Known about the structure:
- By secondary structure, the protein is an alpha/beta fold.
- The protein is built from 15 helices and six strands.
- It folds into two domains: about 1-65; about 95-310, Rossmann fold.
- The model has no long low-confidence stretch (mean pLDDT about 85).
Amino acid sequence: FQNYYAFSYHEDICKEYFNDDILNAYSQILKQRDEQANKMIFNSYYKICFTYLEDHLEKLLSYVTTKPFLEFENISCFLKEFICNPEYSSALRVGPFYVLLSLNPIKSMCYNEKVLVFDIDDTLFPTKLFEAHFNEYEYGFNYTDPDQPLESFMIKFIQNTKEYNESKCKELVGNFFCKEKNSSLFSIQSHLAFLEEFKQELQHLKAKKICFTNATQYHAEYILKQMNLVDCFDHVVHREIAYIDSTILKPKYQAYEFVENFLGTSPSNIYFYDDMLKNIVEANNRGWNAFLVQESLIKVLRESLVGVLE
């Protein structure tokens, strides 16, 4: 870019017209609201500055579109390729970059470091307990409003299906999220009661963190948002919306292979946490460090990472 700028840069004009002394002097004159002085300043200064900058910009744009850059035809072609890179995209957005599981090649993140990989359902979020709670009602558990807080959604849902009064609904939902029922953070259901403490535990882990889920992006986004974990993860690898026989899911080896290629690190650098034994077995077979989460993710994390991230 320095070369591009120098190509159309005129040093003498910049020294004569673009300096603080001249700008300050003309600013003082303009404050006097003298029409003749204003006209003189416009013709002898601002008009020349504007014409120079316009010409400067045209030359820059011409240079950018006609000169080759690296192995690309020009800088514009390079930028079009660059902005599709997941690392660039994730740096611009608030929260993780969502990556669709696919058989198609994907650009590698080239992580030459430890990466923590988390399942979502029944690892970060107590999905089975949640669904069991809603199975008492007519329609089961269904996300109908992505912006509606989880507790508010539950209260409204129970009201509509059981016709309880509002205080009864709040009591039922409150019991589900109750801290008193969960004396510590050492259970998956307690993640909901101790949201801030759980988030601090994850943020304390000084390593790249991603989610690797068989759920859809819609489901993953909702869960991470409601648990206030959106800014804890760099990426979320998820399945496509429509389920078909060819859909790549855990424990298919192609799903793990996709994650390995995407992360660009050795299998021994991957630390994987999941509640399904078959998913853990396949990960171990590929050389990952895989850990089964049955009750306490925090306990498993602490035990598995002793001496690893220090």
